Batch of 2 targets.
Target 1
Amino acid sequence: MTDFVYYYKQEQFLLNLLFGRHGNEMSELQNSLTDDQISKFLTDGYLDVELNLDPMEHSSIYFETDRLFQTLRQGANPHNNIVPMVPNLYDVLNDVNVKSALTSLVGPNYLLHPHRHCHTNFPKKHNSKVGMLQPFHKDGHAHRPRPRHREPRWLILFYSPQDTPLHRGPTAVIPGSHLLRQLAAEQESRTLPSMTYAQEGFTTDSSFYISEVKPLTGAPRAVLCHFDLGHGAMVNSSVLPRYVHKFVVMRTEEPTPRPDLSAVHTTDPIHAHLWEWLGRTCELRGNPVADINEWSNRLESANPIESARAIYESQFVAMSDYDGAIEILEAQVARELSGYSDNEVLNTADSVNGLVKIGAFDRLHSMLNSDVPALVATAAYGLGQLRDAIALPKLRELIDHPNNGVVRHAISAIGIISSATHAELQDTLDAFARKFDEEADWDIRLFIVQAVIRMGILDDAMPLLCRAASDENAYVNSFAIEQLCRFDTDVARQAVIEPLRRQRWFPDPVFAI
Ligand SMILES: O=C(O)CCC(=O)C(=O)O
Ligand SMILES: [Fe+2]
């Protein structure tokens, strides 16, 4: 596709957004959260959304959910099929406050992941202790790992339709834990943490980096969480069941600069980075890092909050000692990767974000050409963060790398770079189409479809998406169908109708499940 055709299509797409059916709604949605709310989300990793549903509707969702679980055999769960079984859940997803909060945090045209799950928590007889039922954890993904980004690319929406006092087993979250790679020094253990209740609230045991715990108690509520927020279910010592409906949302577009909005300020370099990533001007207040040795000590600190903050100060150190800062960050990347297992996706080296802040393109390019898969995957992640179009040809080669972690990071980075720069779209689509058709692993096919979604509404992406709409794997075909529904063409409509007819749910009042 020529650049002209692409820009023409982009223009049409933008005009549609601005003046078309959804245009006005979309731009209003984009500004809806206040800066205080966004700041709370960036700091704590979660945010309540006030729903417009009336109390009757919450109870009707609760009773429908309850009826369903009473009739299913014990232990059964409809998993991803919960929404057609409790269709009022659409009213939560379509609530204008939910839509606008999501648009503020994960951008316009976000995509609802086909994974959704009703987390049940039935009364535990003989257990009246307030505490955790489930260990704190960060979610994996649906169902395979995705690169972790501090920037809001994925969100979880937890909706609880009932009143949930503490003894009815609410979900509990660890505020701020979304910014850490791990919740505790040890890898997540399956043993339940002990919790202490004091006047100020709950705290976890000392093995956790962050001790504060917030149980999501109270009236029916919808809470948006950063995907990497630590959370877990508490013991339900009441006599009533507790339900939490979980949804996952994917950002599909990179944020754009927002000079129309006022500047913000913070004293935390990670928050400053996230504000800027969201397109805002942010002033970082406080004492700028002065000394490279002091910075290096903090970077290597056993306290992960301190080391993460140091990562986002790398650019200030590099202004006075570029080579020194790079050398220290590269050594830290190597240390982090010493525990990297083969085909890893989640645990790329966090300190690569320091090289990203410095804009160390040349170092990341040499890392991308390394023989060590862990370094290659980490570099692909970093060049994605930098939205570096120069890396595209090499990243396209890497989608055939023997290491599955490298393949996944390369595809993910290509999607992000293409979304931001619109560069080399046709070459990338050709490479993706070939790989998609020969790939046996459905998760890699899903990575490709997700990357294609990030590339935007491109006619040239339609053949691949149409094939993916009939993929044997339901995650792959659901994402493709969802994206094709955004195309205003007959070919796209035809491609989605047949698979959707086959998936059609028949709500049968006579033989209700
Ligand atoms: O049931 C809950 O409150 C949370 C469950 C959850 O997050 C999980 O199982 O991953
Ligand atoms: Fe979870």
Target 2
Amino acid sequence: MKWDESYNTNVLVIDNDHKKLFELANKLEVLSEDEVPKAHLINNQIERLLDYTVYHFDREKGLMTKHDIAPLNQHIDDHDEFVGVAKEAYANWKRRGDVEDLKSLVRYLWNWLVEHIMESDMELAERLLLVDGINET
Ligand SMILES: [Fe+2]
């Protein structure tokens, strides 16, 4: 999937993370479309993606804490749910080696990411943008 300007929250650290997540997810998608999927490359990529996702979620949580913003609309629960579902899909893929598990993980990832950015992260950004100098560090 291509990054679209409409995904910008205008909080630079968040947008940079999201672009990085898009890049990682696109690489995973390409690997998942290989005629003969290369499991070790795929697993590596999933792990990089999961690691970066957790790192990014922690950053958002840190911003909420630092600027005293109460999480809205189950924002944190959404993050936890994502990690749970993605880890389960990853475990299924590793156990069964069925490329359909992998493809459903990729689909889930894209749907979740875009929806989450457009709703929860936009709401968070609206509040963060009220903080002086939010884009200056
Ligand atoms: Fe978020």
